[in-house]
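Reopening this ticket.

The earlier resolution said the output was attached, but the attachment link was broken on my side. Pasting everything inline this time so it's all in one place.
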Amino acid sequence: MPVAIESLPAPANERLQVGEWTVEPALNQFSAMGTTVKLEPKTMAVLVYLADRPGEVVSREALLTAIWPGVVVGDDSLTQVVLKLRKALGDVPDKPAYIQTISKGGYRLIAPVVRPEKLAPAPARPDAKPVDGERKRRALWLAGAGVAALMLAVVAAWWLTDKRTSDTPERVPMASIEADRAAQPTIAIRPFEVLGNDPEAELLARGIVADLATDLSKVHGLSVIGVVPLGGQTGGEMPADKLSSRYLVSGSVQRVDERLRLHVSLTDAETGKQLWSERFERALSGLFAIQEELGPKVLQILPAKVSEAELRRVAQRHTRNLEAYEYFQRGQAGLLVRQRAENETAREMFRRAIALDATFALAYAGLAMTYGSDFRQQWTTDGEAALERAFELARTAHQMNPDIRETYWVLALVHVERRQHEQALQYLQTAVRLYPSYADAYALMGGVNTYIGRPADAVGLLRTAIRLNPQAGHLYFLILGRAYLFLGDLEQARVNLEHALSRNLANLETHIYMAALHVTAGDKAAAAWEAHEIRALRPDFSIRSWMETYPMIDVAQKAKLVLALSELGF
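Inline output:
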């Protein structure tokens, strides 16, 4: 279908000032304080469109029409562009200095805009010669023609590209991401010790560790190891010499009445020297203030270059309601079990958290996961409705705060359940580009690759995930074990599936793959034992019924799994 070139928002050639940044639309770049940032053409087009309407609320529909004229794309395309623009500007969604999100309205540029005629002219070269009026008009005409030709080339290139990529995040070579991450200083975070027998303090300790890991992963010059991921499970504790990290954070948490005592230290794992240590003792309501201080204090000691924008993101809290935070942690604990009753409990906890803080994006993400589990595990009579609800909640979480890595992961997970694997992979690639230490994203990418018949690609991704999270839960080893099974490496499959079972003996899927492994290996006794375990977990189990909501689409792999389980009477 033809695209009307004249309807495209062609960037102006003139410079303009937006806040502290000098913007050069024709070059797709802006600069300040000696730093120059390059933008993609559509990202610059959004900035210019908003700058032409400073202070005005511009609807998402208006932006979509202007930036993608004559093309139907999803809301996520605009969300991704705005996210890139905010990151480039060093903006923070909950305390914006440039782009403000207006609920159910759109976006508003709140930074001051200085138009070209008020900017100081660029310094002339010493050898520059005056240009008469006719030559000046010709130069302007040529510049305009050049811009038009550039826009035509952009549109043509877009038109020749598969249009499915227009509504999903861009792909980034995984080798490049891995190489950048490997060259960075590494830090591991131990689970904090809980002093006293206090379940509430255990929840707080888990949340502090997870939030600190998330905060530090926002810094691009740092590789974070030992992350406790959303939706994952922790295994046994790793010795310090096995963490493969230069720096180690450890701590203890104690709750005394309505006060919180937190002791945190940073150690050089190579020398054993303690680099920093601090005790915090405050009212429980001061937890979020402690967290705002904690990440930047750790970063001050580390040899990582941290920008002001990254420091602002590190200090960003997901909620400031302590009760909502505690409900969220209870919901997380319920999700870890991956059983029907606990899933219901988790859903109620997330709902209570949202009732106390309607802007708590992570709680929406957790709630989406409970509905996704209902669909996958067939815990509901209306699976399609549950999956649709999961998708709505995941999109809400992402649109509410697209600067949270877990919202990419949950959106990807729901796309997997919908068998939209390419969309899932692109969300995950965006997540690891923005957060190169995000172990869960690498693990889920590995799972998706196996679902679509590329188990060899899954192995490297899972090895990366396990390096980043040495306390990996059962899902990491399950995903790696099934990849090896479909590759025909039965010994590696067995080792990893046994690791998965040692971390979660009640996981049905692990037993299914272990049964298939024993059938393939010809071990009838071991296969019969796994069949007994499957029936104990789900008496009415049928492999064909189970596959109805299983997201694997590779025909050969599905046939292999069904045939193996059919031999055991399923």
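Reporter confirms the inline version is readable. Confidence is low (pLDDT under 50) at residues 1-11, 120-172, 227-243. The CA atoms of residues 133 and 297 lie 59 Å apart.
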